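Weekly modeling sync, notes
Attendees: AB, CL, MP (scribe)

Item 1: holo prediction request
CL wants a bound-state model with (2S)-2-hydroxybutanedioic acid before deciding which constructs to order. AB pointed out that an apo prediction alone won't tell us much about the pocket. Agreed to run with the ligand included and paste results into these notes for async review.

Input as submitted:
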Amino acid sequence: MSTFSHLEPYAGDPILSLNEAFGHDPRPNKVNLSIGIYFDDAGRIPVLDCVRRAEAQMLAESAPKSYLPIEGTAAARSAVQGLLFGAGSPALASGRVATLQTVGSSGGLRVGADFLRRWFPASEVWVSDPTWDNHRAMFEGAGLKVHPYPYYDAASGGLRFDAMCETLSSLPAQSVVLLHACCHNPTGVDLSQAQWEQLIPLLGERRLIPYLDLAYQGYGDGIAEDAFAVRALADSGLSFFIANSFSKSMSVYGERAGALSVVCADRAEAELVLGQLKATVRRNYSSPALHAAGIISRVLGEPELRAAWEADVAAMRTRILAMRRSLHGVISAKLPGRDFGYFLTQRGMFSYTGLSAAQVDRLREEFGVYLVRSGRICVAGLNSGNVERTAEAMAAVL
Ligand code: LMR
């Protein structure tokens, strides 16, 4: 027996491995709808001009590359808070929000999960059915039990809101409820503002712990609009967690730019929470990334870069909406009598197509169109050069 011979092979990640398989496919007309990455109309991952300018500033300054504080830079943290909670937020003014810069929002999700495991050892986690493939693994990896709550309605391509509320109403106090603040991954099905307003009092009455994941801010209806749930929860006075990411909104995936915020009862509690979150980070990855801090604080904090970023986000959102319309148009024409309206009503990068795993396999093998086997497509992988044939390929296997 050699040292590692007892190890089980890693099956690979359903999203990341598929994206790698796409890279190895030699077919020139292949289409990548697998991973949640925004591609422009030429099929490239854009480098936003505001990010390029922020990086040029950093290069010119050539500042020493010391360790960051465990919680990240003050400039990045306060920029994140302003973006999430809005200027003039009473929660920010009262100092009841603890925010750390983290290694992507995945790092934030995991730090929050470790914190929950330590300080709420009896709590279990409830995630939407379905949810992002990695949510369950992340919380289970932290030692928490994870359960599904009803969410997606396959029959209508919409939301099972009543069933969701019914399940959440039956949970023990201090259960953790993971919610996608906007642009639900993988379905693209979001709660309306009216539904959030109905859900929030329920979360409060049952004394549940909401944990928001906000990875696609700006891709749904707008930067402030997509923070509706964050701001409404903060206004309700509840305590909650929110992990947010800049990977998609700033097109800086590999920089691991994200944050974790915890809204507490008051300033003193926020200081306690921040301290324990710092302890969690220190024994995990020690401190976050310097380059990510510079990008976040400059792009959000400098008025010119901020305006350019907001315009970029609007352009990315608009292009995705145009792709949704094109896909809907072609597929509806090919398969008249079937209702594909959900492509138009679902929001953000993803749509659930209703394609079976066998149909997904056919799409990949026969047409070079890659999507995850749940039937999720990343609409941002469509462009004016591939949307028509992709829609035709989908219609052929449906
Ligand atoms: C996705 O859902 O495709 C993205 O969030 C990328 C990832 O890490 O899974």
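Recorded for review: Residues 54 and 295 are 6 Å apart (CA to CA).
Action items: CL to compare against the apo run; MP to circulate these notes.
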